């Protein structure tokens, strides 16, 4: 009944069952150096997590700008393909694509400037990193719910209000 060379070869004649137990009394306590090392590692892991979260938050603006640039290039490629199908000369195609690219980039810059001016707080600090440019589905549903109660007939609106009226069970104590 040995496990990894620990314990009796056979429990026969020993008066025991041969079961090997862990010695809890001889357990060593963690020293000061090991504790400091472990705490330093935990602090390092925490700092890495904080940096990763900040990187994820800041990635939203980068992704948005990439999507806008990609949109411009897709429109330019669509124009190029349509002009090539019409057998237009290469020089003329390049001119039209370049003019479209300049036009779309100017529109894109105008939109980003408008967005930046809208997202400025009173102190002048921007909210670009934390504020999504498109309303979330939750906000859409909240707004839709507010609009539907105004459209209901007055009897249904009164019924809804009576359901949510609070009547205390006991007097103030």
Automatic annotation (TrEMBL):
Entry keyword annotation includes Transport: no
Residue spans of biased composition, Polar residues class: 11-20
A biological process term (GO) from this entry: mRNA processing
Residue ranges, compositional bias (Basic and acidic residues): 106-119
Compartments reported by the entry: Nucleus
Location of region: Disordered: 1-22, 106-155
Keyword tags: mRNA processing, mRNA splicing, Nucleus, Spliceosome
Domain (CWF21): residue spans on this chain: 64-109
Pfam families to which the protein is assigned, alphabetical: cwf21 (PF08312)
CDD domains tied to this protein: cwf21_CWC21-like
Superkingdom of the organism of origin: Eukaryota
KW Repeat (keyword) present: no
Single GO cellular component term: spliceosomal complex
InterPro entries: CWC21, mRNA_splic_Cwf21_dom
Record-stated family: Belongs to the CWC21 family.
Name of the molecule in the record: Pre-mRNA-splicing factor CWC21
Organism, as annotated: Metschnikowia aff. pulcherrima
Name of the encoding gene: MPUL0B03860
């Amino acid at each position: 009944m040995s496990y990894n060379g620990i314990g009796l070869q056979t429990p026969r004649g020993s008066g025991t069952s041969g079961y090997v137990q862990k010695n809890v009394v001889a357990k060593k306590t963690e020293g000061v150096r090991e504790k400091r090392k472990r705490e330093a590692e935990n602090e390092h892991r925490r700092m890495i997590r904080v940096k990763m979260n900040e990187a994820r938050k800041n990635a939203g603006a980068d992704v948005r700008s990439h999507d806008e640039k990609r949109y411009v290039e897709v429109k330019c490629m669509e124009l190029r393909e349509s002009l090539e199908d019409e057998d237009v000369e290469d020089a003329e195609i390049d001119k039209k694509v370049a003019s479209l690219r300049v036009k779309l980039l100017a529109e894109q810059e105008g939109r980003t400037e408008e967005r930046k001016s809208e997202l400025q707080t009173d102190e002048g600090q921007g909210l670009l990193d934390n504020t999504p440019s498109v309303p979330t589905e939750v906000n859409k549903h909240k707004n839709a719910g507010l609009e539907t109660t105004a459209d209901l007939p007055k009897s249904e609106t009164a019924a809804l209000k009576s359901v949510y009226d609070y009547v205390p069970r006991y007097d103030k104590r």
